[in-house]
Amino acid sequence: MDHHCPWINNCVGAKNLKAFLLYNVYTTLVATVTFTRGIVNFFACQGNSKDNWECQFYRDRLFYVPGLAGIISFVFGIFTLIIAIDLVRNIRENTSCIDRKKNVERNYE
Q1: pLDDT in tens, 26-75
Q2: DSSP label at residue 2
Q3: Does residue 97 have an active-site annotation?
């Protein structure tokens, strides 16, 4: 066992580490696309584009939905990117998160 992850409601270990890494990488990519699309829509709707139906839909809302989606996806994307980088480091060093915190060196071959 490496650690328990509440996102997948399971322990992350040697048998499901690849799936967890791919989950984090794909989540980071989706958050990046959502951030980019949200920010582009936010600034596109700031002008006088009255013919765009998306801008008319968002203009009536209390807060601009694309801007809020961009901010949330940015924070979530940074968080999952940090987890993915940490997992790649664990794989490269051939250790687990718990072993690294305990400062234990083991050979998982």
Answers
A1: 999 999 998 888 777 777 776 665 666 667 666 666 456 666 778 888 99
A2: -
A3: no
CA dihedral sign, ordered 41, 43, 49, 50: positive
Number of C-alpha atoms within 13 angstroms, CB side, residue 104? 9
- Specify the 3-state DSSP secondary structure of 5: strand
Give the distance, in angstroms, between the CA of residue 66 and the centroid of all CA atoms in the same chain: 17
10 - beta bridge partners? Answer: 5
Beta bridge partners of 3: 12
What pTM, to 2 d.p., does this model score? 0.71
Is residue 53 within 8 Å of residue 41, measured between CB atoms?
no
Q: Are 93 and 105 in contact (CB under 8 A)?
A: no
